[in-house]
Recover the amino acids of this structure.
């Protein structure tokens, strides 16, 4: 049986994505980011979030999408998964919705250019809105990073 | 009853007691006739037993109890310490330690200690290990048999008074020790027949094991009992021997005096155990009374009979220590909070210097002073004397020397030198390794020492001392020393260096080869050291703690391993530098000096850029190139600032854009997500709230 969950909705380009609210610590406006050299291109650097140093990654870069200019709408979503705290840079984040897990369907192979393994599923909300649920542990998986690294070299 | 709240206290105190047991045993080994040490050992063992029994760790209590029995005999001069007794007691201590370890790790502290218990019991029976099982000397004298009874049967006060009364009434009180044949199939039946026989003509007051256990065959071929009768002992003996499959019967007649003697021995331990039992029940009802109380209540009761019996014993306990135990996590929280404060302090200082308000500046300056005092104290709170690591070494060296058949004296100095808790936790294993190396490879076998004119006993000096912002720990032995040729031969064979490199190496560099991965000089692989995974691991560990190892050695005279460690790991002094728009922190400990070089002073040697620094050529490293810094390039400047950094003796210069200044910085990790980045050891938060990365200069020097 499914259950009602709360989901933070954010945007990358024209697609809408969702992260379960209990995995999100806070949502911040853009902060000054200190570049960290010699790491993956999608890692934008580290920020000081109330005394804690947290790495920030550009989610567009992580999914191999074209990176965009930061605007007033750009947000950093701080998530905590597997004892890791990471900030995601997203185009905008301004909605929290209730979602029934039964409405989440298995995703097709590729959604909006993102591989299915990063996704938990796709939920239809309203008449023509599709919400793509992210699989955070896959997104932050280190194995994947090591593979990426070897590709880059 | 919820024991969890006492568990940590139990573990802490058990470790303290085990430590003191170990130390005092070693002392005693040095002067086996000093009974005052035995008293101290006995008390520690006794308290430990009481605590273990209260907490319900039966095996722990049982083993301690057996050790206590042996000690009790020694204490009462019924047994003199001998080598095998020491070894057995040490074995017992090891078992206790591993049980406490198990409890610490959440286990139930159970272990099979039957072997040690058996050998301890053998000692109590007065048997040397070689004559095990002979048991001929049972009748030897009242005192030894009394001692035997002490372990076998403990009388409570009621039983004692019954026996005492019977003697007074003219009954015979006998102590019987009955052995059933080893090959007996139905020993419980035979035992029952003996009991049946006895009860026809008298009364069994107490038996060990209990009658119930005997019925269920929970005994090894022998049992003993107190018996009141009117019968003649000799007649009784022959009657019992008539029961088939009875191997041997020992009957001993007791008078009031010998009974009392036996009971006193029995009581010391028996009563104490009972006393522990009682307060523990109180605890369960009140819940609040601390376990320490139980311990205190036990102690006076236990010591008094012993003190009466013996010469006034030295009270070995030190004056009550004025310390409290604090959870290390709380200290970490305190440290973190203080770090936050430090960041704000820097920010305030910056603001005050911008605002130029006199009163504000003054206040901020005062706050800075207070906060540096506070910093000192907070740091000191986390400091632990190295003794907490050193104290297990004497024992280790003793065992090691024994197993290698060498004679080694370990001399520890500066055990009160303090180090940050985090460093202490990590430094133990590397030191163990270095010490084992010193004893195994350093100190020569006795014959070799004598032939080279050295004293038979080798000396290992373990020294700790402060120097500047560092703590040094030195392990120096007067062994055979390090021979350059020997190392180079091995290094060449293992392909660590080429012939060409080898001839050009300084002695210092050759010594450093010992730390190369996969290098082991021992010709023979011993079980102690020389598994080839040794010193490189040691070195890696020490380096990860921000420390260094240096070797000084004179062939034939000995070797000194000097370990240099930082005082603390969480706040360091650093130089802040600017690289274009980015800021970096460089730990002050690796900076030799700062300077400026003109472009024409930079030379190119083999494609590497070098500068001349105090008469030698050192490489000039381009940070901007390594870190891909886009808005700064030192090549575009006519003059460039440099920071000369060092790693051991080697130097290098980093080209930088601009100095910001010197500052105390708080180390922060980059988080778990990012992989280790070469050249960066962490991050810190600057006064303006920006994050600056901390460089790890060691990486730049190869």
């Amino acid at each position: 049986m499914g259950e009602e969950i709360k989901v933070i909705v954010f945007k990358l380009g024209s697609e809408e994505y969702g992260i379960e609210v209990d995995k999100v610590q806070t949502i911040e406006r853009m902060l000054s980011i200190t570049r960290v050299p010699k790491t993956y291109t999608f890692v934008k650097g580290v920020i000081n979030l109330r005394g804690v140093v947290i790495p920030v990654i550009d989610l567009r870069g992580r999914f191999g999408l074209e990176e965009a200019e930061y605007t007033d709408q750009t947000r950093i979503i701080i998530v905590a998964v597997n004892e890791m705290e990471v900030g995601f840079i997203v185009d905008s984040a301004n909605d929290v919705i209730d979602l029934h897990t039964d409405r989440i369907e298995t995703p097709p192979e590729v959604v909006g250019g993102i591989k299915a393994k990063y996704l938990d599923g796709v939920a239809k909300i309203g008449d023509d809105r599709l919400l793509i649920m992210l699989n955070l542990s896959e997104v932050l998986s280190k194995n994947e990073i090591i593979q990426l690294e070897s590709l880059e070299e | 009853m919820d024991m969890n709240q006492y568990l940590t206290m139990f573990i802490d105190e058990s470790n303290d007691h085990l430590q003191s047991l170990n130390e005092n045993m070693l002392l005693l080994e040095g002067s086996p006739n000093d009974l005052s040490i035995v008293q101290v050992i006995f008390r520690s063992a006794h308290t430990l037993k009481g605590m273990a029994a209260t907490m319900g760790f039966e095996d722990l209590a049982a083993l301690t109890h057996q050790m206590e029995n042996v000690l009790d005999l020694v204490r009462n001069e019924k047994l003199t310490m001998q080598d095998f007794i020491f070894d057995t007691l040490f074995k017992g201590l090891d078992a206790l330690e591993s049980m406490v370890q198990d409890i610490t790790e959440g286990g139930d502290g159970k272990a099979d200690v039957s072997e040690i218990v058996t050998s301890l019991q053998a000692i109590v029976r007065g048997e040397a290990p070689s004559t095990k099982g002979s048991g001929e000397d049972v009748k030897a004298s009242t005192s030894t048999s009394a001692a035997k009874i002490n372990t076998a049967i403990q009388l409570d006060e009621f039983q004692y008074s019954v026996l005492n009364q019977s003697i007074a009434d003219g009954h015979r009180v006998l102590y019987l020790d009955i052995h059933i044949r080893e090959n007996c199939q139905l020993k419980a039946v035979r035992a029952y027949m003996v009991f049946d026989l006895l009860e026809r003509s008298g009364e069994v007051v107490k038996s060990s094991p209990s009658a119930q256990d005997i019925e269920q065959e929970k005994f090894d071929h022998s049992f003993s009992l107190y018996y009141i009768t009117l019968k003649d002992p000799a007649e009784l003996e022959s009657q019992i021997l008539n029961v088939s499959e009875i191997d041997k019967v020992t009957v001993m007649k007791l008078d009031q005096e010998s009974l009392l003697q036996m009971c006193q021995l029995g009581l010391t331990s028996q009563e104490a155990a009972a006393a522990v039992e009682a307060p523990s029940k109180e605890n369960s009802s009140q819940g609040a009374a601390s376990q320490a109380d139980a311990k205190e209540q036990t102690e006076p009761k236990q010591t008094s009979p012993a003190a009466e019996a013996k010469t006034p014993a030295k009270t070995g306990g030190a004056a009550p220590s004025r310390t409290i135990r604090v959870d290390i996590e709380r200290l970490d929280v305190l440290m973190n909070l203080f770090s936050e404060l430090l960041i704000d302090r820097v920010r305030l200082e910056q603001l005050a210097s911008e605002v130029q308000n006199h009163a504000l500046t003054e206040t901020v300056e005062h706050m800075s002073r207070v906060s540096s005092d506070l910093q000192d104290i907070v740091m000191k709170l986390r400091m632990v004397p190295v003794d907490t690591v050193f104290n297990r070494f004497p024992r280790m060296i003793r065992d090691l020397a024994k197993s290698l058949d060498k004679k080694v004296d370990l001399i520890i100095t500066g055990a009160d030198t303090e180090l940050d808790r985090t460093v202490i936790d990590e430094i133990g294993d590397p030191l163990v390794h270095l010490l084992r190396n010193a004893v195994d490879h350093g100190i020569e076998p006795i014959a070799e020492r004598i032939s080279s004119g050295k004293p038979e006993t080798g000396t290992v000096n373990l020294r700790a001392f402060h120097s500047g912002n560092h703590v040094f720990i030195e392990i120096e032995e007067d062994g055979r020393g390090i021979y350059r040729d020997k190392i180079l031969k091995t290094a060449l064979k293992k392909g660590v260096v080429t012939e060409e490199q080898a001839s050009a190496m300084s002695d210092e560099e050759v010594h450093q080869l010992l730390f190369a991965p996969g290098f082991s000089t021992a010709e023979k692989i011993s079980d102690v050291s020389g598994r080839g995974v040794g010193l490189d691991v040691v070195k890696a560990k020490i380096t990860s703690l921000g420390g260094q190892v240096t070797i000084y050695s004179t062939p034939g005279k000995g070797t000194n391993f000097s370990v240099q460690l930082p005082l603390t790991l969480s706040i360091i002094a650093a130089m802040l530098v600017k690289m274009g728009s980015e800021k970096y922190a460089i730990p002050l400990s690796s900076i030799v000096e700062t300077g400026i070089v003109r472009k024409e002073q930079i030379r190119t040697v083999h494609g590497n850029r070098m500068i001349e620094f105090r008469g030698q050529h050192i490489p000039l490293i381009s940070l901007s190139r390594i870190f891909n810094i886009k808005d700064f390039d030192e090549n575009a400047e006519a003059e460039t600032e440099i920071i000369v950094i060092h790693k051991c003796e080697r130097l290098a210069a980093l080209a930088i854009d601009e100095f910001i200044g010197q500052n105390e910085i708080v180390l922060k990790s980059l988080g778990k997500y990012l992989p280790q980045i070469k050249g960066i050891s962490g991050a810190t938060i600057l006064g303006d709230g920006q994050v600056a990365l901390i460089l790890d200069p060691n990486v730049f020097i190869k």
